[in-house]
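Below is a filled-in request sheet from our internal design queue. Each sheet records the structural input a requester submitted and the sequence that came back. We keep these sheets so that new team members can see what a complete request looks like end to end.

REQUESTER: design group, bay 2
PRIORITY: normal
MODE: inverse folding
CHAIN LENGTH: 419
BACKBONE (tokenized):
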């Protein structure tokens, strides 16, 4: 069971809301740092030093990236703006992993200039990279194992996914890169998202380690690292258990000794690109109840919408809800918790058992520290919320202000619209 608690009291939240109107996302710095340290401790055995390249897409805010940089993490980027964010907080060169697909030429050029680790998604990108930006002295390829590995609901079956090389393409691709003078090689895969079974990640590591042995022996190349990807899930539902990082690490450690050390291929660095499990559980969307509607069922209308948290509408995902001040109140029957978009799937919860909800109640949705604010949008003219940081000393700072109408109109050049 995962206990769904809040890092602030009702009194503290009331004071926060006085200064920063709802809706907003707020992140718990102390918990993020503690979680990052636990992650690194679990893999402190890894030869060459373990690194998690935080998936910037999960929470693309430089204040969060700065915290993670201080805890030893790099950045996993998939676009030029993400590269720029990472560079802005002082991450440089090999501290950044650039893993994109259908990549524009200008982004490869920027990645080469920054000397980041480039992870190619397709064998055709070898020629494209060489033509547009040049071949670096180190390269990584993303592997798609197809039917050899099961995916999950979010990413789908690997053979249907748009990502990665086939096994045959890997052999062809690394051979070509060796002939072009590349000296440093990496191997990457990511075939699931939000996976809670720790054994899944050990099986993924075994898949890559076996492939490293086979590629090395056949092509005569030495791999610097394997990137196990991300995909470690978090317990969105109270009845779910968090993934045991020590079990993942222990399983990989045993495989590493058996397959890599015994084959004389050590040191081979172990790296990951987790985002969700690093910050996800430590973000909260705070909203206010503004309407209560009774028709064929009961609807609780909030001042937030799926523009602030898309996951429930996109995936049918569960986010736990706390009604502040009514944590111990009895359940009053099922309700739908909704936003104001002109879309009927703009619902945070459907038939959710909650206490009696009244106008003015503060609602907190848990586990929005990854793929929460980041997936926001402006459909229906909705303006994205602020982001706040609950610092280790208990103070709160705004790390992104809420959007205004002027922001929404900023890219329009039309008479009568003030900017």
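RETURNED SEQUENCE:
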């Amino acid at each position: 069971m995962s206990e769904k608690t809040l890092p602030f009291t009702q009194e503290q939240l009331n004071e926060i809301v006085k200064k920063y109107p709802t809706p907003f996302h707020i992140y718990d710095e102390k918990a993020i740092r503690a979680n990052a340290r636990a992650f690194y401790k679990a893999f402190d055995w890894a030869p060459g030093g373990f690194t998690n390249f935080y998936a910037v897409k999960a929470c693309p805010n430089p204040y969060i990236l700065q915290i993670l940089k201080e805890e030893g993490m790099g950045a996993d980027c998939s676009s030029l703006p993400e590269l720029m964010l990472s560079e802005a907080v002082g991450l440089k060169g090999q501290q950044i992993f650039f893993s994109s697909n259908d990549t524009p030429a200008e982004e490869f050029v920027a990645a080469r200039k920054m000397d980041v680790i480039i992870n190619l998604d397709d064998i055709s990108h070898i020629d494209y990279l060489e033509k547009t930006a040049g071949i670096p002295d180190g390269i990584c390829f993303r592997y798609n194992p197809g039917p050899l590995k099961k995916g999950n609901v979010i990413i789908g079956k690997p053979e249907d996914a748009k990502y990665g090389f086939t096994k045959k393409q890997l052999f062809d691709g690394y051979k070509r890169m060796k002939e072009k003078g590349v000296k440093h090689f990496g191997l990457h895969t990511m075939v699931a998202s939000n996976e809670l079974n720790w054994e899944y990640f050990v099986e993924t590591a075994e898949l890559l380690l076996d492939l490293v042995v086979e590629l090395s022996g056949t092509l005569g190349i030495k791999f610097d690292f394997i990137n196990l990807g991300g995909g470690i899930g978090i317990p969105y539902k109270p009845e779910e258990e968090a993934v045991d990082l020590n079990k993942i690490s222990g399983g990989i450690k045993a495989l590493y000794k058996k397959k890599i050390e015994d084959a004389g291929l050590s040191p081979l660095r172990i790296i990951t690109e987790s985002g969700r499990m690093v910050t996800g559980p430590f973000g909260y969307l705070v909203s206010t109840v503004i309407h209560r509607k009774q028709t064929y069922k009961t609807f609780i209308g909030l001042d937030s919408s799926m523009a602030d948290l898309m996951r429930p509408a996109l995936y049918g995902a569960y986010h736990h809800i706390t009604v502040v001040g009514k944590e111990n109140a009895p359940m009053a029957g099922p309700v739908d918790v909704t936003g104001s978009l002109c879309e009927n799937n703009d619902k945070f919860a459907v038939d959710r058992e909650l206490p009696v909800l009244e106008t003015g109640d503060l609602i907190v949705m848990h586990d929005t520290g990854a793929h929460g604010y980041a997936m926001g949008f402006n459909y229906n003219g909705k303006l994205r919320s602020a982001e706040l940081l609950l610092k280790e000393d208990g103070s709160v700072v705004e790390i992104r202000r809420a959007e205004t109408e002027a922001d929404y109109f900023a890219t329009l050049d039309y008479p009568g619209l003030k900017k």
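SHEET NOTES:
- Residues 15 and 404 are 23 Å apart (CA to CA).
- The chain has two domains: 30-279, 281-409.
FILED BY: M.R.
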